[in-house]
Amino acid sequence: MALTKGFFTARRSESAGSDLASCISFEQCVDILYSYINQCTLEQESTVENMNYAQVRKFTADCIVNYVSSKHPLVTGFVDETGKAEYGRLTKALTDEVLDWGVLTDAMQDPNVSEIQGNDYKSIYVEKNGKTDLLRSDITDKIITFESADDMLKIANKLLRFSEVSLSRNGALQGGMTREGFRVAVCDPSVAAPDKGENQLKDKSPMFVIRKYGSTPPSLEKLIGWHSVTIQQANFMKILAKTGLPIVICGATGSGKTVLLQSILNNRVPTRRLAVVEDQSELNARMRDENGIDKSNTIQLEARPTPPSGTAPLTFPTFSNVTMQLLRMTPRLIVLGEMRTDEIVSQAITAAYTGHGLYSTIHAENVEDCVTRMTKCVQATSNGTPWDVNMQTVCAAIPFIISQQRLDDGSRKMLEFSEIEGTIMKDGKLMPKVNTLFKFISDGQGIHPEDGKLHGEFYQINKLSSKMMERLKLKALTKDELNILLSGPEPGTMLSCTFDDTTEQQVVRR
Q1: By three-state DSSP, how is residue 384 classified?
Q2: 239 pLDDT exceeds 80?
Q3: Above pLDDT 90, what percent of the chain?
Q4: Considering Cα of 130, then 131, then 136, then 139, what sign does the dihedral take?
Q5: Least confident of 5-14, 54-63, 239-248
Q6: How far apart are CA 449 and CA 454, in angstroms?
Q7: How far apart are CA 21 and CA 76, in angstroms?
Q8: Secondary structure class of 369 (helix, strand, coil)
């Protein structure tokens, strides 16, 4: 990452400190420090990417100390009357500036908080253990707010600082990553609608959402512990990941799609060349050894938004252009963090249809809606190709679709795991032929008052189709792995799934 010009200004010895005219401002020093931290991060990337939250904070604090002690910056306000730099006070001020998040600090450090939602300077919500409520003090239980819209704007820009962007009227919609690796989406106050009604706020506020990630990478085993998937589903996905067959995960925002995708990705064949593209990097796809060498033959890129002009040359790294470039780089497995546009979906379907492995996520309510949405996207870019042809292409390209949803009790579950066998004519309309393999079935009693949870059971509904069975027999699987994929309930029954090694029991199909 290129360093700012100010970085070289700060590279002076302490003996140069007598010239007050050479001082830089505290804001300039912070900018230079962020570039220095970025440089240190890149130099130790293989180590940093595996750190938990506490380790990242310590690494950052050490970078600040090293920066001050090695670069000896002269900063206005941190030089005494004799012209001597006050490095101790400067180190503390820089540490507070970089590592402290004001009223958000406790929530940023709380491992049970998964999302922070700043709607305005008086309204901060947090999602904690699946429940969303106003941010409150753990000691007094009082609602915590920013002092003013300006105070919130300062924190909003601070959230973006590590990504080297800031808010403005012309850059009102920004996204990036915090130093801790949390994803942020931020809006400038200029796009906020004016407050109306009683007790309205006079000043318009910025808005932001901070999506936090756990201190350890997600795994299928962890999802079993959360009762998001069963051991049978996890074993099925773990083995299926070795085949490289395309899998698309659908669901709403915050339903756990990316966590599930990472968990599946962890079980891929390391020697199968992998290409990853995301608009904001969240996945950890590389498998490095103790020397920092990637043993998984992986290339991982981060795309940029389309420029404000609305047009970009083919060499500009938009998501679409990066995806096109990846297809020229001989990947066997492609991971698209999320398919958002018609063009991206069309590219993904083309890649999967022509033999590439594909993992991706998309916003859709269920399996059927997912197929329909992908078909609409392909239709929009197909220059008049009939709907039925595009539907057949999508169903042939994507053999497996998972519906991952966040339920009203705050839990995230794999509601359905289905095989797409092809298409079928229904009521005169071509539809996807869905073979439901696993499904979560609610007890229909709503939220249970004793625990505040939705109750239900996971079942294996059907076996894989005979066509898919023959396809899997050509994959490099052991006999035991193949038996797990090919097993299933007898016709007219379902298998009750569990969260441990308890033997599955058949039940009569409802």
Answers
A1: coil
A2: yes
A3: 55
A4: negative
A5: 5-14
A6: 10
A7: 9
A8: helix
The Cα–Cα gap between 165 and 176 comes to 8
Q: What percent of the chain has pLDDT over 70?
A: 92
Distance in angstroms (rounded) separating the CA atoms of residues 50 and 443: 40
10 Å CB burial of residue 22 (0-12, 13-18, 19+) is exposed
pLDDT at residue 130 is higher than 80: no
93-129 burial by CB neighbour count: b if 16+ within 10 A, else e? Answer: bbbebbbebebbeebbeeeebbbbbbebbbbbebbbe
Beta bridge partners of 120: 123
Is pLDDT of 10 > 90?
no
User: Largest Cα–Cα distance in the chain?
Assistant: 89
Tally the C-alpha atoms within 13 A of residue 271's C-alpha that lie toward its C-beta: 1
* Residue 265, helix vs strand vs coil: helix
In the predicted model, what is the mean pLDDT of the chain?
Answer: 87
- Output the six-digit token pair for 362: 């998309």
CB atoms within 10 A of CB 479: 6
Output the 3-class SS for 194-210: CCCCCCCCCCCCCEEEE
Return the minimum-mean-pLDDT range out of 2-6, 203-207, 497-501.
2-6
Alpha-carbon span 143 to 380, nearest angstrom: 48
Residues in contact with 359: Cβ distance below 8 Å, sequence separation at least 6, in sequence order: 246, 247, 248, 249, 261, 264, 265, 333, 334, 335, 336
- CB-side exposure of 171: number of CA atoms within 13 Å? 12
pLDDT tens figures, 138-185:
889 999 999 999 999 999 999 998 887 889 998 899 988 887 888 899
Q: Is the pTM of this model over 0.85?
A: no
Pairing of strands 183-187, 207-211: antiparallel
CA distance 213 to 282: 9
CA contacts within 13 A on the Cβ side of 12: 18
Q: How many residues does the chain have?
A: 510
pLDDT surpassing 50 at residue 7: no
State the pLDDT confidence band at 214, using cuts at 50, 70 and 90. Answer: low
